[in-house]
Design goal:
By secondary structure, the protein is mostly helical. Helix 1 crosses helix 5. The protein is globular and about 35 Å long.
């Protein structure tokens, strides 16, 4: 099983988070402010330069008003591929 930044399910999850940020009209700094982080935090996980841990994932999803369960369900079918 592939692991790491380039694993398809992980990249799909990050793209969902980034797409929602853009859909909400938020720039990286605005999301970072909601998270109490620096803009580079958002930039690095969106670019794949750092990996989100589970707590960070929960925090990012909440800051975007997303359900973690729905996000996981969206990428889960890729595990069967």
């Amino acid at each position: 099983m592939a692991k790491g930044f380039h694993e398809d399910r992980y990249r799909a999850l990050i793209e969902l988070l980034a797409a929602e940020r853009r859909r909400l009209g938020l720039n990286q700094q605005e999301l970072a402010d909601r998270l109490g982080q620096r803009q580079q935090f958002v930039s690095r996980y969106e670019l794949g330069e750092r990996r989100l841990d589970v707590i960070e994932f929960i925090d990012v999803a909440a800051a975007l008003g997303l359900s973690t369960n729905a996000l996981i369900a969206d990428v889960e079918p890729r595990a069967k591929s």
